[in-house]
Amino acid sequence: MSFAAELRNVTKNFDGITALDGVNLKIQAGEILALLGPNGSGKTTLLKILAFIEKPSKGEVHFLGDKVTEKNFEKKRMESTMVFQKTILFSTTVYNNVAYGLKMRKMSKNRIDEEVSKILRLVKLDGFEKRNAKKLSGGERQRVALARALTLNTKLLLLDEPTANLDPKTASIVEEVIATANRELKTTIVMATHNMFQAKNLPHRIALIKDGKIGEVGAPTEIFRNLSKTLASFAALENTFNGTAKVTENGITSVDIGNGLQIETTAKQRGTVSVFVSPEDIILSKNRFDSSAKNIYKGKIIEISDLGSLVRLKVDVGKPFAVQITKRSFNEMALNLNTEVFLTFKASSVQII
Amino acid sequence: MLMWTKVIIIAAAVTVLIIAASLAYFRYFTKTRLLVSTTTSLYETGLLNATERAFEAKYSIDLGFLPVGTGQAIQQAQGGNVDALLVHSPSNETQFLQEGDGVCRKIIAYNFFTIVGPRSDPAGINGMDAMGAFKKIVDYGRNHTGRMWVSRGDSSGTHTKEKSLWAKAGYSYTQISMESWYASAGSGMSATLNMANEFGSYTLSDIGTYLKLSKDGTISLVAFITETKELLNVYSVIAVNQTRHPNVNFTNAITFIKFLISDECQQLIDNYGKSEYGQSLFRSAVQLLMPNSTSQIVQWIKDYAFINGTECPSEYRDNRYPELYN
Amino acid sequence: MEILDGLIKALQLIFSGDPRILEITLRSLFVSGSATVIAALWGIPIATILGLKNFRGRFLVKTIFNSLIGIPTVALGFFLFLIFSREKGPLGFLGLLYTPTAIIIGEAILVAPIIVSLAASAIEAVDPEIANLAKTLGASEAQASFAVLREALDGIFLAGIASFNRAIGELGVAVFVGGFIAGVTELLTTGIKLEIDSNNIDVAIALAIILLTLVFGINLALNLIQRRKK
């Protein structure tokens, strides 16, 4: 297998901060590689270097067999494109946004028209050509940015947290598009994420990154199997907790994750584990209610993020849990910071990873 | 940086284009330009506009007047920024010639100043001569409250005349101008007349501007005293000295002077305003000053506006143009 | 009574298309328009550098331009007069004193700080990642800068309008380097002064009306465009 790109001993400094420290990474052609790490670990910087919009302070970058130098820097840029974490759009129509890169490549207008409508269909934004890009919803905007990058059909596609802040429906569209692009166009994709669930299913390989250094690199199953210790240091990942699992009298597995929290799960495991609960599986209520769910915790809202039609909340029940509810529910329940709420989720929703 | 080079080139090119267009617009490249600095009173009557039209019909020279007032006009000439001077202040003109900045002076027209005032004539100057009138105005002003006199207060020819009249009447100008009844407009003739009209005061004006404003109904002042020797107002043209200021348009200045003294222009001057105001605003002077003339006015002009017995002493004449003076 | 009279006569002059008034108006538009264009040609590139690149002394340069915005026109006019003076001035030999060209140059210098300051602010306000975005889509440095400029277009347009307003309404530069030679350098502003001095009140009022209409009209159009964008 040939390498699409390679970073050899790459270090990047900004204003006295070392964002990347001696990074060695080989990216295989045609693979999806996930960069998994907490915020501030250097994921974005690494992606920018692969997108050739940043230059390493030290070290070399090789791309498509050539060493990247001052001379071919701009040319190599044409074969690599990046979608940023925060969606940036030009103040113009969806068409003009998506067509921008194609115009840079001097494609004829007719072909551009074709490509644009093709790609918009792929991201399920058919007919959006004339709409003002900035006036779309969050999910639509992210899809425009994705379409804009995909239509260039570059050899390398870099995605920075592609589904963070997206509602589940859009997130799944995006994940499907990523998979399709890789499968059919053979695009090599490097995506940064801190969503462990996504990291498990989408990529071929995972590279762990922390404090500007690459840790283990391997297939998802490998990584997650021997991961407890390393995972412990990724505590900032959402709804992922380390703890000790015990099987109780009733045959239920209970995981002690600290601060007096015992999470019940249907998975069978013992000893040191990491548990994960998807935000979508958690029910938020203002009052305790009886149900078949075994995990009920009381806590306070410590963070609120507006995602448009959805609201993502962080609730501290001893440990912080991320929960997702509709805007309507949010308003109807009159929720605010420090509001006391209850979190409820089934034992079967708790995954051991 | 290739892009920046392109940007600079485009910016420079378009700038040059626009500048060239603007230059072409006022015929910088095609026509020659003649700039004459002059007094506001000559300009405000509109005589210079008429003169310009006649001149440009005959010659393909772009004639422009800079109406800035006598004092400023002389300064501009001294700086070589204009090609000729057209003013009405013999004392200043003399100094101008003596300092070597001008040559070929020709007297081209005359009229009279007039002392104007409110219809009611509170100071009772009607029927007096100029000196008597001044004394009356001072007396009245000193014994009553309110502004009795408005002066130009700028360095214009009219103001110079006013100052010489005060001196002749035996007053110290510096003292008189500080007294409470004496107001200074610091503006052109129209503004000064308007101010006098407002205050109900007296002022000294050239007949041209007064007639124009009077006819337009702007002011209701009455011209009490005029056409006396002391109130004579003489207009002269002087070319800026080429030896001292090599960049001036000397030949065309001479052409302009010749035009001014030509019969055609002198007639234009004589007729100007006749139909509109019932009397000419200016009178031609060239014919008058011919050697065999006898009228009384000639003597007045000679006394007031001649320098060493002639309108232009020989040391200030240009020997290449003797035809200017016979 | 006289003002009303003058007002009526002024409106008659304007609507009858009096040639003198037309000539003065067109000349004003041409002179101030050219000045704005020239100032923009040089000012926008400078603003781009100021807005995009972080160099040493950037703050100082920005401050200098900001303070130059309010330069008194008489001071600038007089200074330029000295420069263009036929004999004593270093540029006197060009013979540009008392020409519309000199006014164009003078007004261009006058409004350049406005364009630079406002345009630089507009460019700074653009999301800094736009340049990166453009590059990752295949743009060169130059094309990326253009992408940023296009995002700042509203602000740059505003800068141009503000400059034109200042140029067409200023008196100091026009008086000192243009004089107010009828038929050559008489503009709306200097014309008002000249006509009042010559007691042509109706012409003066007509010019004033046109000048005010122009300035208000431009501002109105501007505000409407801004509102539509929101």
Molecular structure report:
The complex is a heterotrimer of chains A (353), B (326) and C (230). Chain A is an alpha+beta fold. Chain A has two domains: 3-228, Rossmann fold (3-Layer(aba) Sandwich), CATH 3.40.50.300; 238-352, Beta Barrel (OB fold (Dihydrolipoamide Acetyltransferase, E2P)). Chain A has ten helices and 20 strands. In chain A, the strands form four sheets. Chain A has a six-stranded mixed β-sheet with strand order 6-7-8-3-9-10, sandwiched between helices. In chain A, strands 13-12-11-14-20 form a five-stranded antiparallel β-sheet. Chain B has helices at residues 2-25, 40-44, 47-58, 70-78, 90-98, 130-143, 157-168, 173-176, 189-199, 207-215, 250-261, 263-271, 274-277, 296-305; strands at 32-38, 61-67, 84-87, 102-117, 149-151, 182-184, 202-206, 222-226, 232-240, 283-284. In chain B, strands 1, 2, 3, 4, 5, 6, 7, 8, 9 and 10 form a ten-stranded mixed β-sheet that branches. Chain B is α/β, with parallel strands linked by helices. Chain C is globular and about 65 Å long. Classes of the chains: A alpha+beta (353), B alpha/beta (326), C mainly alpha (230). The A-C interface holds A 48, 51-53, 74, 77-78, 80-82, 84, 86, 88, 90-91, 100-101, 104-105, 148-149, 152 and C 127, 129-130, 132-140, 143, 147, 150-151.
- Mind describing the biggest β-sheet of chain B? 10 strands, mixed
Order of helices and strands of chain B: HEHHEHEHEHEHHEHEHEEHHHEH
Main beta-sheet strand count, sense and barrel state of chain C: none
> By helix and strand content of chain C, what is the structural category?
mainly alpha
- What's the CATH topology label of the largest domain in chain B? D-Maltodextrin-Binding Protein, domain 2
The CATH architecture of chain C would be: Orthogonal Bundle
Structural class of chain B: alpha/beta
**What value does the average pLDDT of chain B take?**
87
Q: Using DSSP, what is the number of strands of chain B?
A: 10
* Percentage of residues assigned to helices of chain B: 40-55%
